[in-house]
Specification:
The protein has 58 residues and is an all-beta fold. It is 0% helix and 14% strand.
């Protein structure tokens, strides 16, 4: 896993975006880093934008 491939957590609902899994419901394949997600990507659970996510500290 690269330094960029870290998980991000939604501040609103707690959803974890894991690049190893991607977002199958949103059509995002495994391996896509959070920063590479489209600007219009939203949390699959609550619908907020990427600006409401924070990096998960390992």
């Amino acid at each position: 896993m690269t330094a960029e491939m870290v998980r991000y957590e939604c501040l609103v609902c707690g959803y974890i975006y894991d690049p190893k899994i991607g977002d199958p419901k949103g059509g995002i394949p495994p391996g896509m880093e959070f920063n590479a997600l489209p600007d219009d990507w939203v949390c699959p659970d609550c619908g907020v934008g990427k600006d409401q996510f924070v990096k998960v500290q390992e």
